[in-house]
Design brief:
TIM Barrel; 16 helices
């Protein structure tokens, strides 16, 4: 099997830099849209055969070094008692705003409440055998709480911040519950066969470094420490974390995901040789001509300066209007330029 990705997670030497793309299974691919036309987004997430099919598509089409389970970070929140819909963004009909709301939330049993996720992982381990490793994932407690409290995406996330500052007892009770749910869910993914776990904290960067350390770090640390991760590397991605990488590092992940707002070499110097990194091409670069894509890939590889423990990725998810041939060319560039 192609083990470049897992070897890089552990800081081991590799023959060339491994690469995969966040949201690599998605609507920029015509093959994905053909499957998606048959069902809603949630139905796709909850149908193991279809979820496995779209997970594998970019492995075959792009030649990436890892597959990431097709699902959504909010999938395990719904069985906590919040009705989830996508219109097209995520919407909860009954957002969490009070202690009574928190107390009504239940901790799902993954095998009972989310069997379709675990079945998709088992199918994928069979189908990917001899190809590439499978990444499982979940949202970080803070990002999940953001959606649960706001009820949908937000420009200012005022409700979750108001809860943090003016109702810390409600915030703490909610974060405790979400962290426990997250731990159960990700451990079930590992047990089902996920070979790495990525924790997405998409909204962790909306806070100041001081507030992140006070209101977010303790829960993410508890989550990572509670994972059965003896041989399963954990990638911790906090979008917008360039000003607080060393604080985020305290959470204890094995790999630090980087967005495009920080020089990769600078990040590696700050984090030290013991921390692998993942990133960090601006997704918009994939609109550019091939010579610009190759130039930007070369720049990031040069910033890494040949240090072990680098996984090439975008600084966030691939955009839905990116031409697939540009993504494929980027993957080829990473492999060719970094070949040792």
């Amino acid at each position: 099997m192609n083990n470049r990705f897992l070897d890089a997670c552990w800081g081991k030497p590799v023959d060339c830099t491994p690469v995969w793309l966040m949201r690599q299974a998605g609507r920029y691919l015509p093959e994905y849209m053909a499957v998606r036309s048959k069902c809603t987004f949630l139905e796709l997430c909850k149908t193991p055969d279809l979820a496995a099919e779209v997970t594998i598509q970019p492995v075959d089409i792009l030649g990436v070094d890892a597959a990431i389970l097709f699902s959504d970070i909010l999938t395990p929140v719904e069985p906590m008692g919040l009705k989830l819909d996508f219109v097209p963004g995520p919407v909860f009909e009954n957002p969490v705003r009070s202690m009574a709301d928190v107390q009504r939330l239940r901790i799902p049993e993954p095998e009972k409440d989310l069997p379709y996720v675990l079945e998709a992982i088992k199918i994928l381990r069979r189908e990917l055998s001899g190809k590439v490793p499978l990444i499982g994932f979940g949202g970080a407690p803070f990002t999940l709480a953001c959606y649960m409290v706001e009820g949908k995406g937000s420009k200012d996330w005022a409700n979750i911040k108001r809860m943090m500052y003016y109702a810390p007892e409600i915030y703490s009770a909610l974060m405790d519950k979400v962290t426990m749910m997250d731990m159960e869910y990700l451990n079930a993914q590992i047990k089902a066969g996920a070979q790495a776990i990525q924790i997405f904290d998409t909204w962790g960067g909306i806070l100041s470094p001081t507030d992140y350390e006070k209101y977010v770090l303790p829960y993410t640390t508890r989550l990572i420490n509670g994972l059965n991760r003896m041989e399963t590397p954990v990638i911790h991605f906090v979008k917008g974390s360039g000003t607080m990488l060393q604080t985020v590092q305290k959470a204890g992940g094995d790999v630090m995901g980087l967005d495009w707002h920080i020089n990769l070499g600078t990040a590696r110097d700050l984090l030290g040789p013991g921390m692998a990194v993942q990133g960090n091409l601006d997704p918009s670069v994939l609109y550019a001509p091939s010579e610009v894509i190759e130039q930007e890939v070369t720049r990031i590889l040069d910033e890494n300066a040949g240090r072990p423990g680098h996984i090439f990725n975008l600084g966030h998810g691939i955009l839905p209007t990116i031409p697939p041939e540009n993504a494929r060319f980027m993957v080829e560039c990473v492999h060719r330029i970094s070949q040792r």
